[in-house]
Request: fold
Amino acid sequence: MNDQSTSNKPAAVFRYGNIKATVWGNQTEHGLRYSIKLTRSYNKDGQWSDTDSFGRGDLFKAIEALRDAGRFVLSAKSGSASSDVQASASTPPGQYN
Reply:
């Protein structure tokens, strides 16, 4: 796995429509640690932005994105995850591009 602390690239991104779970790796004195950022994209007046606020219709997409991100982190801890993973709603859960 790449040293994520020297790269501004996420370890993995999981998308379900306008919901995105981004996995970031951070090399610490205790080893590689991961964090997950969950966002919702929206378009207002032709300008795309992200928010960490979710509506009722976003919940199941958020759950799936977080589930996939969690699986990635757990498999990375066991050494079986590949770096630079991208998944989308068109990708069945558990399968990565």
